[in-house]
Specification:
Layout lengths: L6 E4 L5 H11 L6 H8 L5 E7 L2 E11 L2 E9 L8 H13 L4 E6 L4 H9 L3 E6 L10 E6 L12
Parallel strand pairs: 4-5
Antiparallel strand pairs: 1-2, 2-3, 3-4, 5-7, 6-7
């Protein structure tokens, strides 16, 4: 039996039960259902689901604020990690929102794997939000990707 490739598509309301389950497995302080519903209701955002065998294995929420895209949430089911799913989600986000867009995000400094992934997509550290994460009081690294500083991710990512 050959593995079915991961498909990236629009994230819909019907996907939210699976998304919430992944969110709870992936994060110590998960988003609420209401937070996902709010983001899905915004027409200018990019909300994606990565599916395998018709099951959601990852998702991405990116909101537009004025002329900046803010990557709000990205997660891959812990059982499906290290297989390029987050890379596929980020590629689709940039394809759909535009290579010329400016993007920003916050990430835990302890999440070295995520930081390396974002750097492969041209994100660069631009500062710190002190005590950003309520669960641990950890700071957040603010990262930006601008059209002037974009780079193509390496095939190994």
């Amino acid at each position: 039996m050959t593995a079915e490739p991961v498909t990236v598509r629009h994230l819909g309301y019907a996907d939210l039960p699976q998304v919430i389950a992944i969110e709870r497995r992936a994060f110590p302080t998960p988003w609420s259902l209401a937070m996902f519903v709010l983001e899905l209701s915004k027409p200018s955002g990019v909300c994606l689901a990565a599916t395998e065998h018709k099951r959601v294995v990852g998702y991405l929420i990116c909101a537009r604020y004025a002329d900046v895209m803010h990557l709000m949430n990205i997660a891959v089911d812990p059982a499906a990690r290290r297989r390029g799913i987050a890379t596929a989600l980020l590629e689709q986000m940039i394809d759909r929102a535009g290579e010329e867009q400016s993007y920003t995000l916050e990430v835990r400094p302890s999440n070295l794997g995520a930081i390396a992934l974002y750097e492969r997509f041209g994100f660069r550290s631009a500062g710190t939000r002190r005590r950003y994460y309520r669960d641990t009081g950890e700071d957040a690294v603010i990262m930006w990707r601008t059209a002037e500083a974009t780079s193509t991710p390496s095939p190994s990512g």
